[in-house]
Amino acid sequence: MLISHILLRNFGKFENFACDFTPGLNLIKGPNEAGKSTLASAITAALFLDPIKGRKELASMTRWGNGELPALEAVFDIEGKSYHLLKDFKAGRIELENSDAGIKNEAPDFVEEWLAEQMGMPSEEVFKATACIAQGGINEIECSFEAIKDKLEALVTGGKEERAASEVLAKINKRIAEITGESDGPGELVRLGKASIEIDYNIDKLAREITNLRAKRADLIQVEMTYRNVCEDLAAKKQELEQSLEASKLEDSFAEAKREQHEIEQKIGEAQESLKQIKVLRDRQATLKNIDHKDIQVVNGIESSLGYLQPKRRELEADTAEAKEEYDSYKIGQAYIACAIIGALGSAVMGLSYFVGVLGFLESISGYGIFASVAILVFGLAIAVSRNQHRKYLGERAAKLETKFSALEMELQTQSTTLNGLLAKYSADSIDDLKRSIWQFDDLEKEIARERQIYESNLGGQPFQELENRKEELEDILARTTKLKKELAHYIVDDGELNRQRQVISQFEDRIKDLERERIVLREQIESAEGGAELLVGYVERREQLGERIDSLKRNIATLELTADCINEARQNVLVSTLEVLNSRTSDILNKLTSGHYSKVQFAKETMKFQVYSDSKRQWLDPEAGLSSGTADQVYLAARLALAELIAEDKNSVMIFDDPFAGYDQKRMENAMKVLKEFSENHQILLLTSQDHYDQWADSTVALK
Q: Against a cut of 0.70, is the pTM above it?
């Protein structure tokens, strides 16, 4: 099977990545952090991971900064046919399609079995232990030996016998664990052993109880008598305590009633005093006139108005007198009128003579005379008109001020009349006298309010009659309590004596509890002893049955272990022929990798662990303990390649190598690449690296940036 194309969406660092592969050795090359290991993980996921069950496994491989589950697509070439595989982990969808043959299947189980069959790899575990070498993980194979062993058995048996043997062994081991308790918690043997010990204890206990039956009965009679006596004493002590408590409560009730009586008497006295004070204040208030608040507002308004109007009147009166005086003293001026008359006469005379020709020899003088006369006329008229207008203005101003003064006089007269009427209404001589009456009335009203507040506070929200009734009730209570105190005078004790009585009662109660427990124990022991003979026989029978059951389980364990040994021996015998081929092929590959230094490898049929024969030391060595790390890696590589080849049979599974030879020297790397090149003739190999020294061996190269 060949992978010809792979497409990754939202996988690790790849948002949308696609590349093509060819048969042979494909070199996937790129610097560190380019995504080589991510690509190897994506190919493995495409081959083995279920889109639904594998979502959690891919949670860490989602697109960086995206968080959306990835989708993978791959194209396989199998015997000239092309198959397209889609795994959408976000949608939980899988699809295998061959468009040429019209095949399309979306069943996860079918696709999983189809891929395993085409690759020759039964599971991801076997694939990663053989044909897929992660970076630095060439020796991670031993943890998968059981799965590899099962697969090698299946190669010989065809799979059916191996599955049956595995199932039988699993059931046998599970049953042994259930009996012995080796896997999870105590087994049946342990539980039966504990039950047997408990039965032995009960048998011994019953025997002792039967022996002590008579002594127990005498003890029970003594305990019953003591119990009755203690109960009678406890009842007497409780009655005495109750009477002492009742007497103590009477003292407390008497003191509380006395205190409440004193408080009520004090409240009643204070309330009565407040009522008297209120009456005195009301009488004083009755001697004063109750002035209407509306009249008070009117008086306040008039007072404010007079305070404003009277100064205004004086100011307006002065302004009016000043305006009249200015009007009377202001004259038009006779001189200006005379100028106007002279100008008019001169203009007439000069004009007439000019036109008649009387002064013909003085024609120029006549012209000047006319001009001068006109100028005098204009000047006189202008001044006269101007002064006449100003005198008219002064007259109007004086008339307006006179009108305002008259209106103000009327307003003052009205306000004064109203004020005088209000003062006469309340027999007050002045505004101040009226206000004093108002203040005295208000002060008395406030004092009355304060006294009423004191009165209501003393009553505490209760009617006065209720306090009187409560006072009478308290007097009755005090009388009854005094009588009861005389009757219980013998039981009146202090707190110390009450505590002592309580302590005595507590001791009696504890003694009764102890006696009750002793009674119950003795009765149970007697009942147990009375039926002990029959119960003892039952315990003996149960002990015999448990012994038989334990012996039966031990025989079952022996039979199961013998059966498991036989099955394991049969499985190991089945592996012999396969291991011979595996030993031979691994030895051949190791011989090429080590240039002949090591040429013998053998796998143990019991554990599948392998050893390497050292010619120089003439003994078999554990690769981890007896070889250098580089040689040990060569042994593991040989084992992986041989196992992958043997397990996949003729399917020629794809092989993935994520930079596995980082610790190799030049010679080891060259031998390893020769072996891989040989394997690439039958297997598609994907070698991921950041180094340049693999370029010469590659059939094709995919560059990652």
A: no
Of 24, 8, 25, residue with least CA distance to 687: 25
**Helix runs in 49-159, H state only:** 108-119, 124-130, 145-157
Domain membership of residue 589 (yes or no) is no
Which residue matches tokens 């059939």?
699
In three-state secondary structure terms, 118 is: helix
- 319: CATH: 1.10.287
Contacts of 589 (CB under 8 A, 6+ apart): 637, 638, 641, 642, 675
Range of the domain at 410: 293-425
Q: What's 476-533 look like in SS3?
A: HHHHHHHHHHHHCHHHCCCHHHHHHHHHHHHHHHHHHHHHHHHHHHHHHHHHHHHCHH
- Which helix (H) or strand (E) segment is 701 a member of? strand 700-703
Whether residue 395 lies inside any domain: the answer is: yes
Q: 312: part of which helix (H) or strand (E)?
A: helix 293-329
**92-110 CB burial, b ≥16 within 10 A, e <16:** eebbbbeeeeeeeeeebee
What DSSP state is assigned to residue 649? Answer: G
Cβ-Cβ contacts under 8 Å for 518 (sequence gap 6 or more): 223
Tens digit of each residue's pLDDT (9 = 90 or more) over 173-222? 776 777 777 656 677 777 777 777 887 777 777 667 666 656 666 777 78
Nearest to 32 by CA among 659, 633, 630: 659
3-class secondary structure, 64: coil
pLDDT one-digit tens code per residue, 389-411: 877 887 888 888 888 878 888 88
Query: Closest by alpha carbon to 5, among 62, 70, 77?
Result: 77
The per-residue DSSP string of 629-644 comes to: HHHHHHHHHHHHHHHH
Is 50 a member of any domain? no
213 lies in some domain? no
Helix or strand (DSSP H, E) at 104 = strand 103-105
694 vs 705: CA distance, rounded Å: 18
Residues present in the chain in total? 705
Number of domains, the chain:
1
Cα–Cα distance, 36 to 12 (Å, whole number) = 11
Pairwise CA distance, residues 357 & 648, whole Å: 164
**CB-CB neighbours of 1 under 10 Å:** 21
Please write the tens of the pLDDT for every residue from 267-293: 888 877 888 888 887 777 777 666 667
Cβ atoms of residues 388 and 333 within 8 Å:
no
